[in-house]
Specification:
It is a single chain. The protein is mostly helical. About 10% of the residues are buried.
Length: about 90
């Protein structure tokens, strides 16, 4: 994580995920995703998205790519995109 952990949040990352979510959802998401920065997609992820994109809209694929950069798997990103924007 790029920033210092506030003194009132020391040890926060050692708490169970459910407890972190109850205390501070935004901070818990940062810890789970390894910080605020977006990661790059791997070569395999890019190939999988390209194959997957033949069957879905540009809006759907854009949502999936955004979620995958945040650390979600292909399946998790797909399910979220289906709920949010559809096919």
């Amino acid at each position: 994580m790029n920033k210092k952990i506030p003194s009132n949040k020391k040890g926060f990352n050692k708490l169970p995920e459910a407890v972190q979510q109850k205390i501070d959802k935004k901070l818990a998401d940062e810890f789970r995703n390894g910080g605020k920065g977006k990661k790059k997609l791997s070569k395999k992820q890019k190939e999988d998205l390209k194959k997957h994109g033949k069957q879905h809209s540009k809006k759907h694929m854009s949502q999936m790519k955004k979620d995958m950069k945040k650390g979600k798997s292909l399946k998790q990103a797909h399910n979220k995109a289906m709920k949010k924007v559809g096919r």
